[in-house]
Amino acid sequence: MHTNSHPSLLVLASVAYLSSAHSFVSNINVNRLMYDGFHPTRLDSNPLAIGWSTTAFDQGYVNQTGFTTEEIICHRGGNNAKAHALVSAGDRIHVQWNGWPMSHKGPVMDYLASCGENQPCEKVDKNDLRFFKISELGLLNGANKTAGPGGFWATDLLIANNNSWIVEIPSQIKPGFYVLRTEIIALHNATNAIGSQNYPQCLNIRIAGNGTILPSGTPGKMLYDPEGENLHLDIFKGLSTYKIPGPTVMSGVPTGTIPPLSHPVPTGPGATYTGTETIPVATQAIPTV
Ligand SMILES: *[C@@H]1O[C@H](CO)[C@@H](O)[C@H](O)[C@H]1NC(C)=O
Ligand SMILES: *[C@@H]1O[C@H](CO)[C@@H](O)[C@H](O)[C@H]1NC(C)=O
Ligand SMILES: *[C@@H]1O[C@H](CO)[C@@H](O)[C@H](O)[C@H]1NC(C)=O
Ligand SMILES: *[C@@H]1O[C@H](CO)[C@@H](O)[C@H](O)[C@H]1NC(C)=O
Ligand SMILES: *[C@@H]1O[C@H](CO)[C@@H](O)[C@H](O)[C@H]1NC(C)=O
What highest taxon heads this organism's lineage (predicted)? Predict the structure, then answer.
């Protein structure tokens, strides 16, 4: 064997790795507590995980043929988490991804779907969920090539923020049990017929507060038009604008603003993180028997 075949084998191996392993939400911090996500890499599963389990053991994505099927709701094989986190309306939730490839540029979005005021999401049928969008961020600067040939996107901010994202629960939301659906769409391959890659992750939360608003939502299978031009495009030709897929963000919530990024971020009301505190593993995830 020629010695110079080794580097190309390594390249092939790493390409194969990238095309079969992308990411998942490993944990969530809120109010100085850390809750476990679903880890497709673990053989055991934590009964206190608030992340819905999936069969995406390749850590991969929902391709465009899945954008109108059950796959899009809570990822491939999505199945209810058995616990939930306690949050208050107005809280900021820190969502930690297990890494993110720089090439996978696209929008980052967050949705909520109510399971009922007194009905935990641990048993809800995902087909009954109606999602409303609470935040979105897409293309920030298509002409900025510092972050790579596709320009500067929300995913680049996520990477800069240690592969994590902050989502604020709108203060006006009515208390109750909700699925928080956090999602990235990677567009690097979107010139291909079914090349957009969707990474939805569902998390169970219970929102406390004094809000009264419960926007009407959209079934998961109807969130996206897989034929939409915002899912069929060439991001490398220097876009000046990008229309983020899915419904518009609920009214009363500012859009297009860069979220307050930092890490770690256990920013409950009044909380100040000094950088020396340890974040306890949540013993407060509430299991439902
Ligand atoms: C797209 O996803 C479907 C459903 O998971 C799968 O059967 C199919 O092989 C995928 N196609 C490609 C090209 O990845
Ligand atoms: C350009 O992108 C880099 C990320 O690679 C970012 O740090 C910088 O703020 C961006 N500048 C502008 C003007 O968009
Ligand atoms: C970045 O995230 C990882 C988890 O993916 C964590 O272990 C690490 O402490 C974080 N780094 C910083 C500087 O917070
Ligand atoms: C691009 O999408 C096609 C399916 O349309 C798939 O076969 C191919 O593996 C994808 N390439 C990358 C780099 O993701
Ligand atoms: C709801 O209102 C009560 C009374 O004003 C207040 O004490 C409480 O902190 C509020 N709860 C939340 C989650 O904002």
Answer: Eukaryota
* Number of separate domains in the chain: 1
Ligand nearest to the CA of residue 70, numbered in listed order:
1
Q: Ligand 1 mean position to 121 CA, how many Å?
A: 28
Q: Which of 86, 173, 210 to mutate to test the pocket of ligand 5 (most atoms within 8 A of CB)?
A: 210
Q: Is residue 147 part of a domain?
A: yes
DSSP string across 82-95: SEEEEEETT-EEEE
**Cβ count near 231 (within 10 Å):** 20
Answer whether residue 1 is part of any domain: no
Ligand 4 close to Cβ of residue 195 (< 6 A): yes
Instruction: Give the pLDDT of residue 268.
Output: 36
Determine the atom of ligand 1 nearest the C-alpha atom of 71: 5
Q: What is the CATH classification number for the domain harbouring 101?
A: 2.70.50.70
pLDDT digits (tens, 9 = 90+) for 133-153: 999 999 999 999 998 999 999
Residue 130's H or E segment, with its range, is: strand 130-137
The predicted structure's pLDDT at residue 21? 66
Tokens 């194969």 correspond to what residue?
Answer: 16
Domain-located, residue 10: no
Q: What is the DSSP code (8-state) at residue 79?
A: B
Ligand number nearest to the C-alpha of 66: 1
